[in-house]
Amino acid sequence: MVLLSSCTIFIARVSSLVKFEMMESHQVKVYVLKTLCLFSVLLNYEGILRCQSAMEETDREAVATAVQRVAGMLQRPDQLDKVEQYRRREARKKASVEARLKAAIQSQLDGVRTGLSQLHNALNDVKDIQQSLIDVNKDWRQSINAIENLKDVKDAVVQHSQLAAAVENLKNIFSVPEIVRETQDLIERGELLQAHRKLMDLECSRDNLMYEQYRMDSKNTHDMNLIHTYFGEMQKLSEELAKQLWMVVQRFLVTVRRDPTLLVSVVRIIEREEKIDRRMLDRKKQTGFIPPGRPKKWKENMFNILERTVSIRIEGTQADSRGSDKMWLVRHLEIIRKYVLDDLLVAKTLLDQCFPPHYDIFKRLLSMYHQALSTRMQELAAEDLEANEIVSLLTWVLNTYKSTEMMGNSELSPEVDANSLNLLLSQNVVDQLLSKYMSTLTSNIIGWLRKALETDKKDWVKETEPEADQDGYYQTTLPAIVFQMFEQNLQVAAQISEDLKTKVLLLCLQQMNSFLTRYKDEAQFYKEEHLKNRQYPQCYVQYMIAVINNCQTFKESIISLKRKYLKVEMEETLSSSHASMDVILDIIAKEGCSSLLDEVFMDLEPHLNELMTKKWLLGSNAVGTICVTVEDYFNDFAKIKKPYKKTMTMEAHRRVVVEYIRAIMLKRISFKNAEERKEGAEKMIKEAEQFRFLFRKLASGSGEDTEGLCDIIKAIAEVIKLTDPSLLYLEVSTLVSKYPDIRDDHIAALLSVRGDASRDMKQTIIETLDQGPSQPNPNYMPIFKEITVPTLNVAKLLK
Question: Regarding the domain delimited by 611-786, which CATH topology (the fold level of the hierarchy) does it fall under?
Fold first, then answer.
């Protein structure tokens, strides 16, 4: 403990010594570190002493432990034979431990001895250093007075420095006018490097003189202005040289091709000026002085001029306006694309070699072109663009700019990564343009559809038949015009984005839905106008066939358009709209077919009126004429496309049968005897076969059933032909069971035509049939519900 206290006191004395002002000597630091090391050694020695005091306690614990171990070893009688063996083993362990302990204690003692020796030497060295520091401090205090006595010498040195600077620049000072003239001549001859060298010499002379004047008397503005005035022409030279440099920079694309050396000279001059600027700014931080006109910042100016040059080059590519050329924007954008691509290729291959690597000139130029293009695109977007111009602009901005035709060109890679370039227009501007485009396109499509329909309507009244397609079906140009227009707009939208393409398709189908409603109304109006004068238009039937065929063409075109431009996952969203269009087209076609059949039956009306009359019974050929007329019309109807032609044939067949049955129900004839009934019934059966043959012929290849309708006529003929009145109820009940929509008035009219049924018989048959159950055939299509009996009530018919 005493040794430790002594060491602590010694270190405190050393610390008091290092507080002197000049205690930065390396030797002092070394001795202090040695002292700290010795302190550590002493602490270790103190620890050893503590260990010795604790050994006695350890011995007592060891004896107790040994007793426990011996007790554990000698628990059985047979273990007494091994006592000697246990003793030798424990003796070896003890000897080993004592040897290690002695070695450790000896090592610690040697360390303490060495530490004490070094500590003694360090104390002596510290005393020597202390004395040296006292001597240095004394000398330093004595020198202060000597420094104050040298003030005059200091002033003389400053004055000498100024005079030396004046003498050094004396030659330049007297030759300033001559150097100015030489520099001016060099600038005019285009020898820019030599001109800049002389200009630098002039500036150096001026700056040195002004600096010395500033050092001598910074507040003497008169002398400063005198120097500045004397070198005034130099500033004009600097400005003239700068103009020449900026002219070269403005024409950098031409210069780098024709005379790259000149561009390199310009860059060297700018680099010189940058170094001078940095040196002058550093001196300003130290002295507060900076020459007039500094910093020139020519490098910054050069990049500003490059940026303005690029902007002017982009803006200057617009050669036309909308008034002189409707394709002005397309031409403008194409010129921009070509110029920008060519400029960047030149910059990559030639310009990069003329600038130092740290300028990174190609990337900076790429950024300038991108910014200039973005500005120009925003200006164009702000104009009142038409729909096709919006498409051209967005296509160029969103697709062309990053395509292989421009920034994605392989010759620009890897320096240019088209995918990393920002959009030329913000998403907000793009959305505004798309919104405007969709609004304009909506108006245009409505106008185009209206104009297309008006043009088609003019064709309907022509005296020439409509054109036929390759299969011979009549058609007009309306579907082709409409879907060609849709196709063009969808192709244009697809160039911009998939999302816009989908929106345009939805718009087209939406407008198509509205258009078909107008088309249906116009077709109905066409029919009504024709009914006012059946001689006009001359080709009414042919153009109505064309209208029907157009419906099928519209259906096929809609499906084709959706398959080509609509994604599969979007089909469900349009299913309702598609179904609605199909319904409208089917209505148009159905009404067209109906109007054509009306045309047929208006011609058939006189012949239908002859049916079931005395004239008919005596041998009228009304049915033959009806069949010839129908067949003649259907020669024209053959140019109706299959889906509607089949419907047309079935409807004609049904209407012929309905009109025939209606003629029966009108009671134009009442057979007087069985002979007439037989003759009339056979004639009806014969004519039913004529109808069957006719419509089987007309329906050939269509696979439709032409048998059932004619069987109705034959079934009615069988009722009329029946000779045994007692079986009349059975025959009529069979008729009713086959055709359950037959009403009481139909039965009464049929019995009246027979002419032999009494009032009671009619009443009995009708009442009995009303009470009987009806089991209709599920495949039967009702036909009697369309046939009305003359307004006489059933009671009068029974009479």
Answer: Tetracycline Repressor; domain 2 (1.10.357)
